[in-house]
Write a structure and sequence with these properties.
single chain; rod-shaped
């Protein structure tokens, strides 16, 4: 079972193209060993193996790239933490501001509600007093209705008199005063 190597990028290009290499014929012994892979079929061709310098250069590149990637990821993590902290602080400030404004608004609502309730109580009490006053005035007007009708009837009877009986005396003046009183006139209107 062979170990596989994961390659994160394609192999580096060959530094020397295969066409520019001199053709070199190798005189190899035939069947040099039981597990030998050398032979005339592979002579003059470059295999997929890297040169030592290429392999070392690729290793150094991967090594330094790993350091660079680690530094970059550290910067990104730091920036992400910073942004998260700023976002959280902004959210906390916004929430505190909204809570403060909501509390002020709630106090305003309670204040205006109590003011409206007080105003309703005052208006209800004033309406009740006005209704009582109206009832009292209605009773007074009803009480004045009887003297008014009596005074009107008496004045009409005095106007039907003839000759020497038509006299303007104190009784007629009082009857006229009762008949022309303010509540009685308003009642007739």
């Amino acid at each position: 079972m062979s170990a596989q190597v994961l390659v994160s990028r394609p192999p580096a290009p060959q530094s020397i193209p295969a066409e520019s290499l001199p053709v070199h014929t190798v005189e190899a012994r035939y069947n040099t060993g039981e597990h030998s892979s050398s032979g005339l079929a592979t002579s003059g061709f470059r295999t997929a193996k890297y040169l030592l310098e290429e392999w070392q250069q690729g290793g150094y590149t991967s090594y330094y790239q790993a350091f660079s990637d680690r530094d970059c990821s550290g910067k990104v993590r730091h920036e992400a933490r910073q942004l998260a902290a700023e976002c959280e602080a902004r959210a906390q400030r916004s929430q505190a501001d909204a809570t403060k404004k909501l509390g002020e608004r709630l106090l305003d609502v309670h204040f205006w509600r109590s003011e409206l309730e007080r105003e309703i109580r005052d208006l209800t009490a004033e309406t009740e007093r006005l209704l009582q006053q109206k009832s009292r005035l209605q009773r007074a007007l009803d009480a004045a209705e009887i003297p008014y009708s009596i005074a009107s009837d008496n004045l009409q009877s005095r106007e039907r008199r003839v000759g020497a009986e038509l006299v303007r005396d104190g009784a007629e003046v009082e009857l006229l005063r009762v008949r022309t009183c303010a509540p009685c006139r308003q009642r007739r209107i």
